[in-house]
Amino acid sequence: MTAPRRFAVILSGCGNKDGAEIHESVLTLWAIHKHGAEYQCFAPNIRQHHVLNFIDNKEMAEERNVLVESARIARGNIKDLADFRPELYDALVIPGGLGVAKNLSDYAFAGPDCQVNEALATAVRGMADAGKPIGALCIAPVVVARILGRVEVTIGHDPATVAALAKMGATHRETGHGGIVIDQANRIVTTPCYMLDARVDQIGDGAENVVQAILAMLGSSPM
Fold first, then answer.
1. Whose C-alpha in 40, 129, 134, 216 is 20 to 30 A from the C-alpha of 208?
2. pTM for the complete prediction?
């Protein structure tokens, strides 16, 4: 019996405004298991940029750790991104949320000139160099574009983000709810999720479509 495909899922905290988007993260994990694969969650062991009150959007006077916060989504089964080894995984997926733009990078503040967390850049380059598929949801394609440059991705149709992607050297393809863009040459699959005004079922469609496209790239026969 063939061993199930193994996904590495990189989280950026817990909560869409200052961490990983919870719906996108959980529905990605759901889709991976639904289609017969397995996953391991990772996050960098770093201080979170800031902590927001999700009711009033005000910054709170406290500090949190990205790895510790991400462990909430992973139910404690999570590893330090610094320990990621590309040879142990078949694919990598990055859910969105502003943690991607605040914790995994400083895109929220520096735009297309952003810096990316070193452990994330190493993981993405390692998978790309090995020819292994990479998935990115919502705002996460911007960090993939910043790391790899000339890739083809989607973030829906937000003009400012499209312009930033172009400055990074990426090509943008417009998509709607649940839609995906597949960059066959670079083995990258992206979907807009909450870059659009989406419902949670539409987030599930996008996450599942990304996972299925990656498994197709890997030649997997689910279940």
1. 129
2. 0.97
